[in-house]
Fold these 4 entries.
Entry 1:
Amino acid sequence: MSDPRDTFDPLIRKAFQSEGLKSYYLKFRGGNEKGEGYIGDIVFVDVFATKLDGAETVYSLVLKTGGKNKSMRQIVRLGFEREIYIYSKVIPAFWQLQEEYGMVKFASIPRCYLTILTDSQETLLLQDIKSVGFQLYDRKTVMNLDHIKLVLKVLGQWHALSFGLQTKHRLEFSRLTSKWKCPAEEIFVKSHVGKWMNLAQKHLLSVLEESGESELLLKYKQKTDNHMATSIVKDILYMEKEHVVITHGDCWNNNLMFKYENTSEASPTDLCILDFQISTLSSPVIDLSYFIYAVSSTDQLEHFDSLLQIYHQSLSHYLRQMDCDPQNIFSFTDLLDHWSKYSAYGAMINPLIVCDNLVDKDNAASYANINEVYESIIESVDKKHSELFSSRLIAVARHFTKDV
């Protein structure tokens, strides 16, 4: 087996060439574990460095690479291309726009030290934000309102940057997003994940029938016109042409890390968004419906109206800082209209996401073997967490169909 230092040394030298490092040594801390949902390979490493002026410092890093799984090669490549593009092109364009208007840079992302994209290599070297106190929310529990509100505020800021760039520098935005492929379609529609999504939708229908929710089942079938989840997701991805943003695309527990000021984890003070591999150009509701439905149950959805208000207030505040009029660009009425048209996106993905949230690590699938085990994943979750699984699916289905 090759020495991992042989891989890291050239990356460290390239990433930190402006930092004035005299010497350093590496301490590896493992990689991604089963059930964490990463596409590609992850390695965690600390760089203990001495600078030319004698100062000592530690860089805690995450190395993301495309890996060698041949069955997922096309998806891995597309996902890494998108994330590298977000870090190397989109975020700098957003920051330049903010600098133009005297704004503080959008900072709810890990620092990116290095990206490499060649015919045979996909690499990102990122800050390990765990080292500065960020942590994941327990994916098996619904999020409390303080966490949900913070995520919606940050999504409002992220989406506002797209609207702002379109308004102030339309040609640049068009250049950034022209000829984009859609990773979400490749993953959620064309890959093994799409099969899992359709099976999870089928399980939802069984839950509604077995729970005596015959009226809700009828409403759900009417709302979806009996279409498969993958068909609905594919259609929605391309429907909106006017009010579009660069979405995050995969906004659920595994890609959100929170920071707290004290030992209480009830109310976060900061948020960091990870993994832009499914980012695409579409309605803001792609992110909103995905996130809200992924982390909510009945209690959270009772606050739905106020949650949308919080998102739109954040979006509007950011737009005004760029001398943009929210009412003309994306009003609250526009948001409600988009929710009516496109929230099926999050509703269709929800059974899969809830299943993935509740599955135990021992029964979880990696993207490498998902084609073999997705049926057993649903069975294992239903067996061990039947009541919780069913209640969350029913809550989202009820909210999704409330206007039927």
Note: The first strand starts at residue 21 and ends at 31.
Entry 2:
Amino acid sequence: MAKGKKGKKSTGKTITLKMAQNYMGLTLDGKRRLDLSFKEFATVPKCIQKLWEIDELDLSRNLIRKIPDFIDKFINMSVLDLHSNYLEALPVTIVHLQNLLVLNLCNNRLTSVPSELGLLKKLHTLNLGLNLLEDLPSSIGALKELRHIGLSDNRFTRIPPCLSRMNKLEKVNLDRNPILTELTPSHGLIMTTERLYLVTESCLCDTCLNMCQTERRKMDDVVKSKIT
């Protein structure tokens, strides 16, 4: 740093409205998509508020530390991709995105998610993998349309109880979490850290289903032998 000059916090690259408009496009199914991934900015450009009618917004792989409250203006948005940033929290205003179907928050620095997330009634895919989460708010169980949830590479020591209330949930990825399962007080704890991927039986082919059922019976036999 040059002597006599005060250092400034880097905000990354600047995106103008004209530049943002150049990154607009249509998906194969005719959705309006704004792709601002890999743009190296640390602050979400205020100018994109004027593009509030978009259906999909990709802000992934940037340097973003905070999502501005004006995110609630994008009331038509069905897909919001924020993976691979530096987010430590989410604004409560995200609850206004009532048409949101897909929310990708993977690979950030989240230690918690707001309970209001459970009010996104149409959400069917939620990726929270590669964060610092230890638990989920019980309100997440109100996401009755949720099919897929990614929770891998966090700090969960148990399977979040709220998942049991999601009737349409098909796939849960809990890989590489320090899940602790208590058998009995005398037998201590089993720690599973590498792989824990849950799916509904209807998602499996006959061969995979038979294999899983066989492995389940083997595991049940092991548990029974340890208890007895």
Note: The two ends are 69 Å apart (CA to CA).
Entry 3:
Amino acid sequence: MSDQQTTYTPQEQEIVAAVVAYWKTNPKVTNVKTILAEAFTDKTNWSRISAARLRSSLKKFNLLPETLDERRDRFKLQEYSHLIKSNSEKMPGVEEFIAEHKVPVKIVGSKTRGNGLYTTEKIAKNQVIWSEEPLVFYYDDLTIWTEQVRSGQGCSYCLKPIRNVRLEASCGRATTCTARYCNRVCKTKDNAKYHDLLFHRSVEGGASEIARKLEKHCQDFNMKTALFYSYLLLRAVTSGKSGEKLLAQFKSLATVSNEVRAEYSSKGTSNQSQFDLEQTQQVDRDAFAYLEQLLQKANPEFLKTYSYEEYQNGLGAWNLNNLKDSFFLLYSHMNHSCEPNVVAQFTDREGDRSKGFTVKALANIGANEELKVTYVNPALDYFSRQEELRKFWGFICACPRCKREFKELKEKEQ
């Protein structure tokens, strides 16, 4: 009779039970190779367990965290940058802006990457490269519009709180209008037809009740993008030639359907996320119905060729390109890096975004180098940055910093 011990092939549950017992004294060990070497030393009659089988068994019971490669692959599943429509054409008016303000940059277009901003001369560290006021701006807090502006406590043009009552002005066209301007300059700049639509019940074509319903709907469902984009569109279609130019500028931005963004964000998630996606789509359609009613009163001809698909693309363009709910002519051509060489700093310390910002160099920059900003907080770790970039801009970053940090993480994982 042979003294050789009979080899036993353990069941999946037995493998998992042995690892759980091992974790009671080694709770921080998740490396598969280490577990293989240490968790089964008393199972002398077990046949050899491969790393692949151990990983599969633990994952089946949700006991093993994702590997770095698995986590990055999951992010890539939710990436939608290949669906973003990038426009290699320059935004109308941008070349004139560069020439007028003598900005040492040029725009280089690419069919795959869209536009990028490159230097035409050397830039010194801390040098202010240019200053820029927004084409369109809103404050990221919906209540500034729905409460302050509606009650006359905020300017209906620049939206900032009215602090000096001696300078404020009313529209003067309707006695029931609650809107106020912080000064006569803002009143002069405002579009009368757009103002009448949002604030006047009695003016012919007025639609203030519909506007209020849209505002309440957007506030109830936290849809600031839908409200701000709708009002950008209404301002444009009631502003004649200047409105046509604004629409052309907005349409030149990179875009993707907002439904696509939501769909890809929910990929690989729970059934609850799929349910939430369907609910979001219905809420979007309800907001669009209010916008249609407003457009019918503002510009019926425009509405004839405007569709829900275009509305979704407009929401997507807003989400991809805004900086603190503002749009800028030259800044919108800049691409991202987690190691940016420039930073945009708003110029008004009191938070008046209508005054715009300055773009300053963070390092010495050579001629013909691309200027890049960061879309996310650079203090975030690798995966936190990737999560934000994937969710809000649809891509996985592969800048030098990200490549370096992922390599370091892989070395630690080994």
Note: The mean pLDDT is 87.
Entry 4:
Amino acid sequence: MLVDGAQGISRAVLVLKLLAREADAGLRLVDLADAAQLTRPTMHRLLKALVVQGMAVQDAATRRYRLGPLVFELGLAAAHRFNLRDLSMATLADLAQTTGDTTFLFVRSGDDAVCINRIQGTYPVQTPALPLGSRQPLGVSAGGLALLAALPAADQGRIIEAIAPRLGAYGDLDADDVRAHCALVLKVGYAHIANRAVPGISALGVPVYGESGLLLAAITVAATHNRMTGARVQEIVPLLRAAAQSMGTLLQQ
């Protein structure tokens, strides 16, 4: 039976969402069929149509499917309405006002976390200004750690191996430390980095998810190490989570 009409569109969108979640590694036909609860012949027809339209590509060596170039082109066309930096302004400003500390927005770029927005807090002693566009390996900053820990375990492992040679620039941080930090994030639900990315600075971070659970960014709050006491961590984490939820909801409107 051919897949057409509204049902076919819904299924195609589901496939694109699944591919977006595994953007780096890609997915096999059998993985996609199982995840979408479709037969393999039906999934094969869907993928063939998406490949023809440029919305999916298949790696000739691994036979895995990934998002295609048309998805990127469509994203560029809609970018002015879904600019993360612009959309994060109000949320980051409110969080900075409430906490008194500097807030940041990070996005993933390959194996790095990139700072794309920053709002200075009102507390007299602030953290050093992290330049917009600056990047560090995932797992080094609170934002990067929140992003890394939110990825599938297989992606985490690959990324940690890839960034291991670069971790020496951040004190005695090594791959085992990053693995342990990721495990702790999954246990407590937030990232906490102290005296790593920037000496004397502590930061907290949580991921921001869009529709269907797609990882979009990470929000962080940074303060001097002495100011970020255990009690203050417990005060800020709920505010961070609320801000991340607010931004995720905004992006779905």
Note: The beta strands are 56-58, 65-67, 102-109, 112-119, 135-137, 191-194, 201-209, 215-224.
